[in-house]
Amino acid sequence: MMANVKETKDFLESKLAGFKPDVALVIGSGLGGITQGVTKPVVIPYTDIPHFPKPTVAGHAGQIILGELAGKKLLVLSGRFHCYEGRSPAEITYPIHVVDALGVKVLIVTNAAGGINPQYKPGDLMVIEDHINHLGINPLIGGVNGDGGVKFIDMSQAYSPRLREKLDAAAEKQQVPVWRGVYLATTGPSYETPAEIKAFAWIGADAVGMSTVPEVIMARYHNIEVVGISCITNLAAGISSKKLSHDEVLEVGRTAQGKLARLLTEFIGAL
Ligand code: HPA
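A: This is the predicted complex of the input protein with hypoxanthine.
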């Protein structure tokens, strides 16, 4: 596998003419607005990249965008891989190995999530303070190929306190209100039952989604500093009596992405 990562890295570097990204950003469902601010973009479809996971029938493939934002060199992973597509943990986290191989030391993850905390409203942003892995998988199980066995990775500060402080400062400066909370990941693709949401609230979750946790675990394995933001696209099942719909998730994401882009641009500039 690591030989594959090297080939992927060599391919990307051959496209980059010396461009060395400082920061990587994973874009969640419907949250791509920030890419409009990227200058001198080089866009590489995932389907062109050797060893990148192949698109499924249902999922659109995505692309890497490289360029500058707020004076920093940025690598955007626009489109991620999910458990609910039937992806393996190794496929879901493959891009993180590539980010590491390119020498990137800061990873920003974004996602769409359902609000469990009763204070949250659709369109709100939540800085991820910590997560609960409810996926039933861990991408480090069995060890990462080529690394000589299983590694026990500390997760007590998975989301960098240093970067969270910077994100708070950026939010203050841009007057973008943010919550701070715990993100819980489930596999999906069905949304949760009200009983599951009640249980998740009891165990300490503020928001629920179907992504992010595998990538964050792999980033910590590589000692990449992580910061995460959830866009609360809906109230979780049973928090409101409304039925959940994927279209609504995407729609609310689209309306909130301007504010998310402002926040992240300020944050990236201050890194
Ligand atoms: N549940 C799980 N994943 C989600 C939700 C939700 O309510 N909203 C957006 N992603």
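The radius of gyration is 18 Å. The CA atoms of residues 75 and 260 lie 17 Å apart.
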